[in-house]
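Hey L., structure's done. Input below.
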Amino acid sequence: MAYKKNLSPEEIKQRAEQKKEQIKSALKDIEENVPLVFTSERYRNFLDVMSRFHNYSVNNTMLISIQNPGATYVASFRSWRDDFERTVNKGEKAIRILAPSFKNVTKRQSRLDQNGDVILSENGEPETEEKAIRIISKFVLVPVFDISQTSGKELPVLTEELTGDSPEARHLLEAVEKVCPITIHYKSPQEDRVLGEAYGYYDLSDNTITVNRNLSNDQKAKTLIHEFAHSVLHCGDLAEDKDRSTKEIEAESTAYVVCRHFGLDTSDYSFTYVAGWAGGKKPEELKAILGSIQESTGKIITELESEVDEIREREALKPDTALLAEDDFEF
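Output:
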């Protein structure tokens, strides 16, 4: 089967409308299926463990990302040992983040009764007392480590890695490599310590994408598009005013919609991944996030369509070697 390149204006319009409806349908799937993940036992077990991780500030999240773009779960040496039954590997270089340093000071303040009301003296004046309080005196750099720098008890996993090697994934990998304007690296965790246990990462500092070369083609394609989405949606000023959970929801939702458009179903992975980052958000917040990426997702699909069509057309024209076996010919 050949794929038409020269479409009439009417066909172009029809194709654009179909694409728009497909994107809306795919985003609706995410919106409807993610809440179902929240009711599962697996999700409850996942939350139980994840609740032990500290919720870092925007500044510390940026510090972590700069030092280790592939970081996923970060905790102190003691927290890994006591809370997660894992130990930091020998020789690992710590990630440095800011933590408040406290000191005790004495301050005169109003006395309060058990209801929290100010106690007044006989002449109606507020009674005061000296009280020791803790205040932040300064911020200091403290060491933390990513899970990839530790060993021990496995953490519960919410998502299951995609294991297929479909032609759709191979088409998408080739197409993204052609249209992506920034450098893409395929490396193993042994070659790139920053990669760690992550499937891939987008490095904002040097504007590059790195994907784990050991993944199946289905997972590799999905991950590449996820990181490609980060590079489109979250570079420069576009990264401001968005927390990490919003960025991850946007990137994974984009990857799901794009993959689905080209025939690669990543729902088993994408729905639980989005749920993992959407747990603290209200349904209307999730809906707003999904609505905000419709236009950018459509642009990515449009960029990829001509490349995927060309790849499919090229493969369709290849002779089937199975039909060219010597026994099939008469001499």
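Strands lie at 74-75, 86-88, 95-110, 128-146, 150-152, 183-187, 200-203, 208-212. The longest helix spans residues 9-38.

-- N.
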